[in-house]
């Protein structure tokens, strides 16, 4: 099975108003990786409103490792990144580009996968 292309899911309003019904009907994904943990929590709520279980029907992971992700049941699987060092690194790169005409470049920033219970073992 080949992975689906990334799909951007637009939403208006709060995370609690996220509607995944069209995406679930048309694509039937088995996993959703949200761009941040708050959105991942909104995805979990939307999936539950669709009558789906996490991770039984759909695995969900977030990105940034906020504390509230550890307070849900099951805890959110997420990628933790050190916010302060990520912000300082981005600011340093931007200043270098603006002040010294440095070329854009790719940097690796440390991260940790915090396994929770929202991703199914396959």
TrEMBL record:
Pfam families: Peripla_BP_3
Name this protein carries in UniProt: DNA-binding LacI/PurR family transcriptional regulator
Keywords linked to the UniProt accession: DNA-binding, Transcription, Transcription regulation
InterPro entries linked: LacI/GalR-like_sensor, Peripla_BP_I
Molecular function GO labels: DNA-binding transcription factor activity; transcription cis-regulatory region binding
Transcriptional regulator LacI/GalR-like sensor domain location: 23-115
